[in-house]
Every structure is written in structure tokens, then in C-alpha cells.
Design goal:
This protein is mostly helical. It is built from eleven helices and two strands; from the N terminus they run H-H-E-E-H-H-H-H-H-H-H-H-H. Helix 9 packs across helix 11.
Length: about 300
């Protein structure tokens, strides 16, 4: 429709979507890409490892090759399904699978867009830059949860009944373990989202942090362990692991004697600070950084 003087009307200004609507749009765009990526195929193999170990343990018990007790340093040790499950949560998931998921997905939230030369396409759309990162971060959380949850549930139902354990009695511990894994995924993802926004070789930096810095520093005396995620996660592990097994008690006594485990309150504060600080700084960097794509 033209104006009374015959000139065309001024072009309408495109409506800028809200931050929440932008986050939802980026989430819908990113989730499918993330779930069906080659990275996810590799992570399926990683979270499938504990399931294979659980099946092997089940076979050993059925063949009477695994006993329910023994002696360590002259003390009787009881091994049953809840103890085995708790140790698997600690050893296979919190110490390996969850950090690895955080590294591989968290560092790729922005780095993949830069590598594929699609970052400028995203940032030229009428969307807040921070919403792009938050939407991709939420897609990571859901994708990682869909990978970890079936693995943990399979391990739970295979391992928990072993050697006199009970599925019903262990269900409250399962809920605590799942909550702890969700916290670990959220915190590691936020931290490595920051690493991905900050460093060019973010994946290598993240792997060095998880498998170099954390395992070494967390067992050393001093304050440096406070600059790791695993230090605070380990402080919550005793509250999620079954407490009725002597093996668990011995392990926790050793860690507490070496001042490796913080209190639950300190752990929650530390993890909350890392999550908020990591994600907040990542959003701040993405909003202010100029991305120049290499030819």
C-alpha cells in the first residue's frame, strides 16, 4: 500500500525476539544437531563402559567367583550391591564420564560454530549473543542427561541386587546419585563453555584440566585443590553413596584424614560459584568478542 503522495511506506522494523524466545529457538536448533553428532556416538561408548563392567560383575557373582566379604588390614570388609554401585558412580561417572561429557560438549558450544564458519550467521540474526550460548548450553544438558541416565539405570538394576543388595532399599541413593550427576554435568559444562569461549585450542585445554590438573592437585595438600570441580563434587559423594558398606567407610576415612573432602555446604557453594561464574563469564565474552573467521 502506497502513501497519499505515491511513495512506498517505510520498511517495518523486524521485531526482536525476547531473550527467552531466543534461547528456546537456539535450543531447538542445537539439540538435534548435538544428539546426532559423531561426538555423541563416541560418548555412547564411554557411558557404555560401566554397563559392560556391571554385566561382567553380574556374571562373576552368578558363577560364585566374587565373594561378599574379605579382610583389609585385619578389618572385615563387606562388599554388596549398594557398595559396588556407589563406587561405580564415583569411579566411572563422576571421575571420568561426566568430566569427559563436559569437556567434549562444553568446549564445542562456540568452538564448533567458529570451526564450521557458522558463527557469523548466528550472530547476524536478531538474537542476543548470550541467548545463543545459553540455548546451546541447555541443549548440552539435555543431550548429556539422555546419555547418562540410561547408563546409570542399567548399572543400578544390574548391580544393586548383587550379594544381598536390594533395589527398593537402594532407590533413595539412586535419586541422590542422579542429582549429583546432574550437578556435575551442569558445572563442568559451564566451566568448559568458558574455556571454549576463551581459548582457541579449547578441547585440548579441557582435557589437560580434567585428566592432568584435577587428578594431581586434588590429592595434594594445600589450597590448590579448591581450583578444581572434582574437589567439591567429592565433598558431596559421601552424602550420595551408600554408607552401610565397610569398603565405602574405609575409603572415606582415608580421604577425610588427608583433608581431601570438603563439607557439603562448602561443596555446594563452590559448585554454585563455578557454575554461575563460568556461564556468566562465557556469556560476557561471547557478547563482546569479535569473531574473525580464518580463510
Amino acid at each position: 500500500m502506497s502513501s497519499p503522495h505515491g511513495s512506498p511506506p517505510p520498511p517495518s522494523t523486524p521485531v526482536r525476539p525476547s531473550f527467552a524466545a531466543s534461547v528456546s529457538r537456539i535450543y531447538n536448533l542445537s539439540f538435534g544437531q548435538m544428539l546426532w553428532s559423531r561426538r555423541t556416538v563416541f560418548m555412547v561408548l564411554v557411558v557404555g563402559g560401566p554397563v559392560a563392567v556391571a554385566l561382567i560383575l553380574r556374571m562373576l557373582v552368578s558363577m560364585d567367583l566374587l565373594d561378599a566379604g574379605g579382610v583389609i588390614d585385619g578389618r572385615p570388609v563387606t562388599i554388596d550391591g549398594p557398595v559396588i554401585f556407589g563406587l561405580m558412580i564415583w569411579g566411572f561417572y563422576l571421575s571420568f564420564s561426566v568430566p569427559l561429557l563436559g569437556v567434549f560438549y562444553g568446549t564445542s558450544l562456540i568452538a564448533d560454530e567458529v570451526e564450521d564458519k557458522t558463527i557469523t550467521y548466528l550472530f547476524t540474526r536478531p538474537l542476543p549473543r548470550g541467548a545463543v550460548l545459553i540455548g546451546k548450553y541447555l541443549a548440552y544438558l539435555v543431550c548429556a542427561g539422555l546419555l547418562v541416565l540410561p547408563s546409570v539405570m542399567l548399572v543400578f538394576f544390574v548391580v544393586m541386587p548383587l550379594l544381598g543388595g536390594s533395589i527398593g532399599a537402594g532407590f533413595p541413593d539412586l535419586l541422590k546419585d542422579l542429582a549429583l550427576l546432574a550437578v556435575g554435568l551442569a558445572v563442568y559444562g559451564a566451566l568448559f563453555a568458558l574455556v571454549g569461549a576463551l581459548f582457541k585450542r579449547s578441547l585440548l585445554t579441557g582435557l589437560v584440566f580434567v585428566f592432568g590438573w584435577e587428578p594431581i592437585v586434588v590429592v595434594l595438600p594445600g589450597y590448590m585443590k579448591r581450583f578444581t570441580v572434582s574437589y567439591y563434587l567429592q565433598g558431596l559423594v559421601p552424602h550420595a553413596m551408600p554408607q552401610d558398606g565397610t569398603v565405602t567407610g574405609l575409603v572415606l576415612q582415608v580421604l577425610q584424614a588427608n583433608e581431601i573432602l570438603p563439607s557439603a555446604t562448602v561443596s555446594l557453594i563452590g559448585l554454585g560459584a563455578i557454575l554461575a561464574g563460568g556461564l556468566g563469564l562465557a556469556v560476557w565474552l561471547v557478547q563482546r568478542r569479535e569473531y574473525v573467521l580464518e580463510q
